[in-house]
Write a structure and sequence with these properties.
Shape: globular
Strand content: 15-25%
Number of strands: 11
Radius of gyration: 20 Å
Number of helices: 6
C-alpha cells in the first residue's frame, strides 16, 4: 500500500474544530513536520499544550494502542523522565475517529506536549550527556522487557532487521560512489549481522531515539529529560535501540567512535 496516498490531509481550521468537538477545548493548531501521518501543536487559551496526531489511513488500531500504552507504562515506571501520555476524549476514548470532507476515516489521539531542547539543538554533546543518553535508553528497555502487544509485531521498513529490503531502492542513489558504499554495508549486514540476529535478545523498543526525538533538560544540560514520537515502536532485536542511538550520536563529530562509546558505556 502506498502510504503517501493514505496520508491524512487536514488543515489547522479542521483540527481546531476536532479538538473542540472531542475535548471541549478552544485552541490554535499549528502543523508539525511528519512523514506519513499528520501532527499538530495544540495551544489552548488557558496555556495548556498538546499534540494532536492523525494517523495514516493504513495504520492498524492495534499498532496505535501499543504506541499509546508504551509511553504510559514508561511514565509510570520512570517518573524522573517525561513521555507523551494520552489525553482521553469527553467520551473517555484514547483513540478516536475523525473524517475529512470526503468522508474518509482516520484514527487520531491527543497527547501531552513536552517542552524542552532537542538533543539536535545542543551544539556540543559532552561525554556525560552521551553517557546519560545511553543510560536512559538502557533503563527504558529494561522496563520494557516484559511489555508485549500484538500491535508491536508488524512489518516495518524502519525495523533494522529488514535492512536488506533496501537493496531494491539502491537505484534511487544517483552517485555511483555513494551507491557502492551502501551496497558494501548492506553486504556486511548480510554476512556478519543477519546470521546472528536469531540468537540476540528481542523485546519492545522505541526504535527511533534520534536527536529530534530526545529532549535534554533545560536546567541541567547533561541530563536527558524525556523522549517523544512512539510511531515506530516495534518488537525486534533489543540491540537495535542502541544502534540507532549510536548513529545519531556520531553525526557531526570529529571522533564519532568515541561518541558512540560513551552511549554504549551508559
Amino acid at each position: 500500500m502506498n502510504l503517501i496516498e493514505t496520508r491524512p490531509r487536514f488543515n489547522s481550521d479542521e483540527v481546531e474544530k476536532i479538538v473542540e468537538e472531542f475535548f471541549g477545548l478552544h485552541c490554535r493548531a499549528k502543523p508539525l513536520t511528519s512523514y506519513f501521518d499528520q501532527n499538530f501543536h495544540i495551544k489552548c487559551a488557558q496555556g495548556s499544550e498538546f499534540v494532536l496526531k492523525i494517523s495514516n489511513g493504513a495504520e492498524k488500531r492495534a499498532a496505535l494502542a501499543a504506541q499509546l500504552e508504551m509511553p504510559s507504562l514508561l511514565a509510570e515506571k520512570m517518573p524522573g523522565y517525561q513521555f507523551p501520555t494520552t489525553i482521553s476524549t469527553k467520551q473517555n476514548e484514547n483513540i478516536f475517529c475523525v473524517k475529512n470532507d470526503r468522508g474518509e476515516k482516520y484514527y487520531a489521539r491527543l497527547v501531552q506536549f513536552i517542552s524542552g531542547k532537542f538533543l539536535s539543538q545542543i551544539a556540543d554533546h559532552s561525554e556525560n550527556l552521551l553517557f546519560n543518553f545511553g543510560k536512559f535508553l538502557g533503563q527504558m528497555d529494561r522496563e520494557l522487557t516484559d511489555f508485549d502487544r500484538a500491535g508491536l509485531h508488524r512489518e516495518l521498513d524502519w525495523d533494522l532487521k529488514n535492512a536488506l529490503d533496501s537493496r531494491h531502492r539502491l537505484a534511487y542513489i544517483p552517485d555511483p560512489g555513494k551507491r557502492r558504499l551502501v551496497e558494501y554495508f548492506l553486504l556486511q549486514f548480510e554476512i556478519h549481522v543477519s546470521p546472528e540476529l536469531s540468537r540476540l535478545r528481542r523485546s519492545a523498543i522505541h526504535n527511533d531515539a534520534n536527536d529530534f526525538n530526545v529532549l535534554v533538560d533545560e536546567i541541567q544540560p547533561e541530563k536527558i529529560k524525556g523522549l517523544i514520537d512512539f510511531g515506530d515502536v516495534v518488537f525486534s532485536n533489543t540491540i537495535f535501540e542502541l544502534a540507532i542511538a549510536c548513529t545519531y550520536s556520531m553525526f557531526r563529530k570529529s571522533e564519532p567512535l568515541q561518541a558512540a562509546m560513551q552511549v554504549i558505556q551508559g
